[in-house]
Design brief:
two-stranded antiparallel ribbon, 2 strands, globular, binds iron/sulfur cluster
Length: 97
């Protein structure tokens, strides 16, 4: 996965999109502070570890001031790497817990 300034590129995109919202100015997004929690399963990473990370990431999303806008964007953009995005984790959604 490509990264920019230590963040996955989609996190940078998210920041641009959210800052472009009228009268909406967010501080650092939770996923910018802890991108490691949102990442897909790493090679050799135990499944239980992914589940723990993704649950923590989903909890961060629920407190994110940009959740609604992020959820709208996630409806039209693919999530090919099965990362946590807009409070959803494909791993958790599949019930692989
Ligand atoms: S809802 Fe989650 S993925 Fe979306 S900007 Fe906020 S922390 Fe990041």
């Amino acid at each position: 996965m490509s990264e920019h300034d230590g963040h996955p590129e989609w996190v940078d995109l998210m920041e641009v999109v959210l800052r472009g919202q009228p009268k909406f100015d967010v501080g650092p997004l939770p996923c910018q502070n802890r991108p490691d929690l949102f990442d897909p399963q790493d090679w050799g990473e135990p499944h239980e570890a992914v589940v723990r990370r993704h649950r923590a990431a989903v909890t961060l999303c629920k407190s994110c001031p940009g959740l609604d806008q992020c959820a709208e964007l996630s409806k039209v953009e693919p999530n090919p790497h099965s990362m946590v995005w807009a409070g959803r984790s494909p791993v958790l959604d599949r019930g692989e817990t």
